[in-house]
Every structure is written in C-alpha cells, then in structure tokens.
Amino acid sequence: MMTEMQLKACIFNIQKFSIHDGPGIRTVVFFKGCPLRCTWCSNPESQSGKPEMMWNQARKKSLLIGEYKTIDEVVEEVMKDIAFYEESGGGVTLSGGEVLYQATFATELLRILKEKEIHTAAETTGYAKPSVFANFIKQVDLLYFDVKHYDSQQHRQGTGVDNGLILKNLAHALAVHPNLIIRIPVIPNYNDGLDDAEQFAFLFNQLNISKIELLPFHQFGQQKYEDLGRTYQLAETPQLHTEDLSEYKKIMEDHQIACLVR
Ligand code: SF4
Asked: Which tens digit of pLDDT belongs to each residue from 99-134?
C-alpha cells in the first residue's frame, strides 16, 4: 500500500513571497492538471497533468514545466519561510491548474500543514466528485471558489464542462465552510454583460451569498500560448479594468451582494 510520503504530484511552480493569494506573505504551490479548458486561461501550461516542454523567451531555450514531487519535498520547501508566515499572518496557498485534479495529494498536504499550524488557502473551480471535494475543504482554512457562468450550456461553451457539479459543490461549501470567497472571472463577450450580472446576482441570492469578488479579464497569459505552440482564441480581446465593471458591481450591490473588484 502506498503511504502518504510516497504520494507524488506534478507541481509546476512554488512561488515565494506572494502577497496576492491570501492574507500575509505566502508561498503558492502551483499544481499541474485541470479538467477545464477555459478559453481565457492565463496559465495554459498548467492544463496538462504531466510535465511538458515550453519555450522560455528570456533564456532562449525550451524548459520543462512540471516536476513530480513528494509531499515531504513540498512541505520541506514551504516550511523554509515559516518565519515570514508568522511575522505577517501568512501561510501557504494551493493553486493551479485545478488543485483538485490531484486531490489526494493536495488534501494530505493541507492536513500536514494544518498539523504544523500553518494557515492554508486554496483556489478552486470546484469541479470534482462531491466526496473528494468535501474531504478537501475540511482541511483548508480559506477557500477561493471561482464561478465562471450561471448558465450550464454557456459554462460548457467557455470551459468545456457544464456547471452542475460545480454548483453542487458550491452549495456544500456554503453550508459547511466558514471562510469562503466566491469570485467571478469577468470575460468580455462571455459573462461581462449587465444581464449576466443580473443572472449571477439572482443565482447568488438563491444561494444566500452576500459577498463576492470580480476578477477583470487580463492578457497576462498571452505569450505563453505562443511559447507552447498553441492558439490563443482571445488574443484580440481587450482587457477589462476596475472602472469597466462599475455598473456590474452596482447590480450586485443592488441585490445586497457586497462586491470587490480585484
Ligand atoms: S479552471 Fe483555471 S486553470 Fe483550468 S482552464 Fe480554467 S482558468 Fe485555466
């Protein structure tokens, strides 16, 4: 039988000193693998669950993205910055890709970090078997949950999967998790219309969600598609800025949903 220490996950980055992925100074562990294929994805190198080659502009050579690591190796790396977590009220954030793609490893990693009294956060789109999702969120202190579309067919069109499982897991998280941040990545011509805001607000009211965050579309991932030799469908789509979402935000607030634009 495989012990927890023999578990391995494909990790493509361990980023130190992050201040945007939860409270305080954090280390972000980026997991490879995602069952979705969002047309706007800014981390296309995270989508495949296996290591892959990617051209690196700065070094003018191809580099391997993703490496199999044991839990021991990841824990050892993130614990190097414990003094910064303690000083700043920070901790460790799991991101991706979709962290639930390697859920056994991620859940065990969270459990070990909890034992060590390290604050943990995770970003997810909630696309996983409900039992797997439920076990995972029991171990995490702060959960960022991204909802991409209220309509199942549109969700499939933009991401490759429908939203049934995601909404089921969201309802469960809302019922049991005390520290949940719901986010909408707002994408032009996909979910950025004011009618979309109304529909999202209707869904959130039904779920008793009183607070959300909006993530305006950006083009930070554009070069990576070229570096991977892949086509980027949204190359010509303009970025959104905070001021572009003021009416969207107001619609949320009109429905008693506090709304922060990131
Ligand atoms: S869920 Fe996230 S990582 Fe997966 S394809 Fe969508 S944007 Fe990319």
From this structure: 999 999 999 999 999 999 999 999 999 999 999 999
Q: pLDDT tens across 218-228, in order?
A: 999 999 999 99
Structure tokens, 55: 């051209």
pLDDT at res. 6? 73
Dist. CA 159 → ligand 1 center (Å)? 8
For residue 247, pLDDT over 70 is answered with yes
Which ligand 1 atom is nearest residue 97's CA?
Answer: 3
Where do the domains of the chain lie, and which CATH numbers do they carry? Answer: 8-261 (3.20.20.70)
**pTM of the complete model:** 0.95
In sequence order, which residues have a C-beta less than 8 Å from that of residue 243 and are 6 or more positions away? none
Torsion sign, CA atoms 144, 150, 152, 157: negative
Pick from 125, 145, 149, 190 the residue to mutate for probing ligand 1's pocket: most ligand atoms within 8 Å of its CB. Answer: 125
**Distance from residue 218's CA to the centre of ligand 1 (Å):** 14
216 lines ligand 1 (CB under 6 A): no
